[in-house]
Amino acid sequence: AQSVTQLDSQVPVFEEAPVELRCNYSSSVSVYLFWYVQYPNQGLQLLLKYLSGSTLVKGINGFEAEFNKSQTSFHLRKPSVHISDTAEYFCAVSGTGFQKLVFGTGTRLLVSP
Amino acid sequence: EAGVAQSPRYKIIEKRQSVAFWCNPISGHATLYWYQQILGQGPKLLIQFQNNGVVDDSQLPKDRFSAERLKGVDSTLKIQPAKLEDSAVYLCASSLGDRGYGYTFGSGTRLTVV
Question: Do the beta carbons of residue A91 and residue A104 sit within 8 Å?
Answer without folding.
Answer: yes
